[in-house]
Design a protein that fits this description.
- This protein has 14 helices and 8 strands.
- With 341 residues, it is α/β, with parallel strands linked by helices.
- It has a single domain, classed as TIM Barrel.
């Protein structure tokens, strides 16, 4: 069964499924162990090692700020954290963000990613949905997003290979999705799926706002809530993968190029260590046979791939154990960005 989602401007939103445990989340310390359920089945799976690919969307920066120095600092600090933790990540670029601010400095930010050994993929030019653009318009938006990425990759002899759908919306009805997929394949793209999504976008903008205002207490509260929620979410996705495949798959996690992740990446890596999930490249993760499972989903909602495969395989996911983003974070998000649903 596919669960309906209502989309926001930068990522998917799950159907409401709040439970009493959310009250505990806001008060949790950063320690990942406290954010994990104590069920024996979870303990058993945590004893097994797995792999995960970390992917960052919305380069060169998901931020409320139009201050180029602020955006430069986000990229500098996030790249430094990636290097410090020796993570084999990939970044997905919206070329429209390059044009929105100081173009030479935004291109320089992308070059910094490449110079750090990080490959780049295409996330369209404008971050629009195929639901709004139609197949032809969406394909044009993908192509419009290529020139800067290719120019940055060329000097390091890399080619543009990966594509990530904004909002995880892949096209509806079936003919639109099929046309987009045919164009992507004909132009040498591989789709980058998502099999762990901790909704970091919804935490990122309130955190960005608190950081810019110098509200250190609010900044710390949001960050702790984000880390606790992420730990619980990773555990849930592992349980969901076992419901579908009877094992851990090689996960692909959706993150964003944000101030929140620049400040939190060391602790996120700590969560992965606690879960015994080893970071690997996207290409390595995609060798898992799970990614050969057919994706028959053609709805308008943005749906990550475990949900898609649940529909394909006719197997239910453990929704009763899922916890949604805390109400306090949703309210904070609506406050800083009221125009988004």
């Amino acid at each position: 069964m596919i669960r309906n989602r209502r989309k926001s401007g930068v990522g998917p939103r799950r159907a409401q499924k709040l439970c009493a445990a959310l009250a505990l989340l806001a008060a949790l310390a950063v320690a990942p162990a406290m954010a994990r359920p104590a069920a024996s089945a979870h303990v058993a799976h945590a004893a097994r090692a797995g792999t995960i690919a970390l992917t960052f969307d919305d380069l060169p920066g998901l931020t409320l700020s139009t201050d180029q120095t602020w955006v430069d600092a986000i990229n500098r600090d996030l790249i430094a954290a990636i290097a410090r933790n020796r993570l084999p990540v990939i970044g997905f670029v919206n070329q429209g963000k390059v044009e929105d601010l100081d173009r030479p400095r935004q291109i320089a930010n992308l070059r910094h990613w490449v110079q750090a050994g990080i490959p780049l993929g295409n996330h369209t030019y404008s971050h629009e949905s195929p639901n709004d653009l139609g197949a032809a318009g969406y394909i044009a938006d993908i192509a419009h997003g290529e020139p800067v990425i290719r120019a940055v990759l060329g000097p390091v002899h890399q080619r543009l290979r990966w594509f990530r759908h904004p909002y995880l919306e892949t096209g509806s009805p079936a003919g639109v999705k099929a046309r987009i997929n045919r164009w992507l394949a004909a132009h040498g793209y591989r789709i980058a799926p998502v099999t762990i999504d901790a909704d970091d976008w919804e935490f990122a903008e309130p955190y960005d706002d608190a950081a810019r205002r110098g509200d250190s207490a609010e900044r710390a509260r949001i960050r702790q809530s984000y880390l606790a929620y992420t730990a619980r979410t990773i555990a849930w996705y592992r349980k969901a993968a076992r419901a579908l495949f009877g094992r851990d798959i090689a996960y692909v996690m959706l993150l964003h190029d944000s101030r929140l992740n620049a400040d939190s990446l060391d602790d996120l890596v700590g969560i992965l260590r606690h879960e015994r999930l080893k970071p690997v490249s996207l290409e390595t993760a995609m060798r898992d046979p799970a990614y050969r499972t057919a994706d028959h989903y053609v709805g308008r909602d943005g749906v990550e791939w475990l949900e898609r495969w649940s529909d394909t395989l006719h197997r239910e996911l453990p929704w009763d154990d899922f916890t949604d983003v805390p109400d306090a974070i949703r309210k904070a998000y609506q406050k800083v960005d009221p125009d988004r649903p």
